[in-house]
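Hello Y.,

Per our agreement to keep a running log of every chain we model this quarter, I'm adding this entry. I've kept the format consistent with earlier entries: sequence first, then predicted structure.
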Amino acid sequence: MESSPLISIIVPIYKVEKYLDDCVQSLTNQTYKNIEIILVDDGSPDNCGRMCDEYAKRDNRIKVIHKENGGLSDARNVAIDVAQGKWITFVDSDDYVTEDYTETLYNLVAKYNCEISVALHQKFLDGKSPHAHFPSISEEKMDSKYAVEQMFYQEKFDNAAWSKLYHRKLFESGIRYPKGLLFEDLPTTYKLMLLSSSVAFTNKIIYYYRLRNSSIEGSSYNPKKIESALSVAKLMDEDSENIKHVEKAYRCRKFSFFFHILLSMPKDVETSKILEKYIKENRFLILMDRKARKKARMAAFVSYFGKSLTKFVFLKCSPR
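Predicted structure for the entry above:
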């Protein structure tokens, strides 16, 4: 494998001027030097666009795209189409990464001859700093089916686009993020993994994920959440031919996904009945699935006692 191929780091940007310096600085400080940083100003109404142009003046590895607002998926897709790197990775603009983020991900694909590598992230509350956590570092190579199972079961890692490195040929197959939807990586990452021959994983933490209440996904309830959830589930259900090989794991992921959305919904929202129906029809199967994570099986069990108790247990008693 080529010793240090160009890696494209794609950063969609919208209304994050408070956090953008931290994000971009973490990228320009990468120990892996052969990178291009594609900053996509997605029609941001604040100072983000001007900040991006200033960054580009200071570092010739930075490229800036200014476009009309089209959402996270559209911003990623536009950047994928112009990326020059042999490898592609994504970073959200309100997050930041370790100095060896790119190096860690590339060393994995080089060492194990894979088309995708995955590392862990750490969440932290906005206004706080991540707590230092240094586990005993381990690595492994997985075949694509097993990797997707692990992802759907949320055992080792989840479906987020970031904290992963992808060979560009996977996107040349035509796979793109669905425009206009939240949870856009759920119906996308598994497709990329199934196209790859294998996936390399490390439990090393190289990505810091900021929890913001002001974001759409971080808000308690937004109608777009349920619309996107149903649309995403439909996209995946329609891909049943690919998913049938990991059907039980997908059922568990869809159950957890719907359960998470349902907890944030008011009682009088009509579409909540669709989510409740799926949960009722599948909770026994989740309880009996020994590969399902404990949290999913607990949700399945508690759901038998009604929505009020379920919300109390998961929203009042569980740590964020």
